[in-house]
Amino acid sequence: MVDCSSVKPDAGMTASLDTCYPDNDGINDQTYTIDIAVNDTGFTSTGGDDAGAKNIIATQNSSQVILKLTNNGTKPHGFTVGCISVCSSYPTLPTGCSPLACFPSNSTIAPITAGTSASVTFVTPVPDGLIYPFSSGAPGDDAVPGLNQGQWSLM
Question: How far apart are alpha carbons 88 and 91 in whole angstroms?
């Protein structure tokens, strides 16, 4: 075991994900259908348990997600989840474990035009007990706080 803060962020991953990030609550392998709308000021969940929640998504780790994004704005918006340090949930890591966790590349939705929808299907990352940031990722949206303050909680 090594102190998480001493591991370089670009450390090569040689250990298995289960060895690196034991599940914190013993629940995973769930299936979620998430519908979210984006407009020119932020994101809102439009279905499921989180209906009406602004800029928040909560799921289990290692679970299949079908994510539908509907653009109710007046210009293009997308959806992208950022990487995060695992150190808050895994302060010591076995050798060969990365201190960073990222959603898979197929979880990104490129900017879509106003009035359209797009869907992606992917599996959430293994490390849980973390809050991953999400944003629109569309050009010009970085100046709009509501399009950059999303939180995806993996339980």
Answer: 6
Residues, the chain: 155
Q: What DSSP element (H or E) covers 17? A: helix 17-20
Tokens 């989840």 map to which residue?
A: 81
Starting at the edge strand found earlier in the chain, the sheet holding 77-81 runs 56-59, 150-154, 130-135, 77-81, 109-112
pLDDT in tens, 14-28: 788 888 999 989 898
Distances (CA, A) of 20 to 123, 144, 146: 18, 36, 33
The H or E element containing residue 67 is strand 64-71
* Bridge partners of residue 132, in order along the sequence: 152
**What are the CA-CA distances from residue 96 to residues 3, 61, 76, 113, 128 (Å)?**
12, 21, 40, 42, 18
The pTM of this model reads 0.89
pLDDT per residue over 92-147, tens digit each?
888 888 899 999 999 999 999 999 999 999 999 999 999 999 999 999 999 999 99
Nearest to 62 by CA among 84, 31, 98, 20: 31
